[in-house]
Amino acid sequence: MRRRRYIICYISLxxxxxxLFLAGISSxxxxxxxxxxxxxxxxxxxxxxxxxxxGIRLPRTLAAMLLGGALSVSGFLLQTYFGNPxxxxxxxxxxxxxKLMTAVLMIFAMGHGLYPNSLGMTAAAFTGSLLCMGxxxxxxxxxxxxAQLIIAGVMTGYICNAVTDIAVTFADDANIVxxxxxxxGSFSGIAQRDLPMIITAAIVGTAAAFMLSKPMxxxxxxxxxxxxxxxxxxxxxVALILLSSxxxxxxxxxxxxxxxxxxxxxxxxxxxxxxxxxxVLIPAVFIGGGVFCMGCDLAARMMFSPxxxxxxxxTAIVGAPVVIAVMLKRGAK
Amino acid sequence: xxxxxxxxxLCAGYRGKTIISDAQIKINSGEVVTLIGCxxxxxxxxxxxxxxxxxxxxxxxxxxxxxxxxxxxxxRSKKMAVLLTARTxxxxxxxxxxxxxxxxxxxxxxxxxxxxxxxxxxxxxERTGIASLADTYIDRISDGQRQLVCFAAAxxxxxxxxxxxxxxxxxDLGNKLRMMQLLRELASEGTAVVMTLHxxxxxxxxxxxxxxxxxxxxxCIGTPExxxxxxxxxxxFGVDVGTFIxxxxxxxxxxxGEPQVFVVGGGGSGxxxxxxxxxxxxPFAAGVLHENDIEYPTAAALxxxxxxxxxxxxxxxxxxxxxxxxxxxxxxxxxxTKHFGSMNALNRELINMPSETAD
Lengths: 333, 359
What we know:
Chain A is mostly helical. Chain A has 14 helices and no strands. Chain A is globular and about 65 Å long.
């Protein structure tokens, strides 16, 4: 019974994912569509068409798919770690930490006439994520309830954003233009050269998270219980922190802070699959995050085309109500 | 028989605060051992230290001949299961999922259950009577049912030794007894069972041995017959308004005063009257009761005075005379029994006696 539900859900998710991917590369303000993709496949496309579809839309859509997945898995790991369904990289301020360090790197590098490469950006974001994570962990040791943890996270986010603003104030005009789009959260700036890093890190990170399914499964029943069935709790905790920070840092480095995906997607996937087994959920959360972000990105660029919204605007409109719903559900018990 | 778990000068506690010191314990396979003691006496601390959930402050716990500190979590989990009441209740986790976690030590890298594992999980759920909850989410069941789910998970873990911290606390009487019976079965299959209990009647009925903790140490270890005496239990648990009755495994209140009512009971017929008079605050006397009467312990505790007769002897005229002396000062006599046989024939005289103080 359950297995059939899983299979149906997975097939639907994959179909949705494929559909949104096609929609992502075939729609845009330039008017290029599905027939142009067919031309590319048959080799008869013009350079301009190739450039638009392969050079701009493909990286953007692929990034939305993979980074959305990475962000959702990161949220799932954080929820496991804190035993808190509202935890996520954005809510806990981890994305903002990553944003701060990336902005600082960008301003510094561009001030010297350099453009930081993918690895550098990811490393800076990862550092920022870990710093904020450290802060949250220090706080979480002292607070015992869910709400306080979230408030601490939101406040951490504000602090990081304020410091980012200060850094931006002192940056050159050219840098600000560059930073602005990214700092609102957007998949638009992603180029082909970023793809190797994104693909590798998202897939390796998610695969590593998948390998933690077993201890995570036991961890749901509490730390003491997990230890009694043989989980090395300390090692699991460290792995969860590193992986969730890495995955959310990857997203922030390339797409800026994307809001609420980390909370909303795992919750929606759990509701559809009706289970909380990590081994079932992690791949589904990854695919689901891709679907969610490709959908939101499509909406961000098509809804008021040619005007483009930041993807965070759309994910917030869809995701924040989910967060409230989760909170109400928990509160009702 | 060599001990499955053994301690050597064990000091247990938290962060340098010693709670139990110099513990020397040996527990064999197939034995049910219960830790008893008053609130804060360190039962749970000791249990958690034996179960390697807490590191000893000093000394060693040997599990199957090897110090628990030398085991990896994985090795240890194949030998011991710990029943902790799950405080966290994850959403969308079925009871079957939760019991399956008990197979953790035996599954592969990804934790996928084999058919054998599934059969063991199903069997454990059937034994604990929660098979019907298999597909119910664990956050939608009662605390007692959740306790049984955790118990099933511990059974599915197939440990050589099982630790349980107040396992019966959320359970109704039927489930308490079923759990105890199941623990006895596990013991007869060779599992050592170590638990803490507040329900002394369960400890007394189902333990092979009891370990008493009081005042920062183990005050005594012995069989239920040795441990459950009124004096020891009253002292250990600070029972001062009542008294522990070993025959019942529980306590009755103690009353004093000048008797206003005399109760003629016997064979258990007076127990509810004694308790009723206690609740109404009316001091009373009882008699003539044989010392082996089922209601004698209750009468001895609740009545201000009891006129007794030696076990298996007919009620003697001397006893009747003593009873009559007391009745003379009472305002009423209550007769609870309808049966006057050869042993209590003379008791009939007490109820036919005109109440002299009724003037």
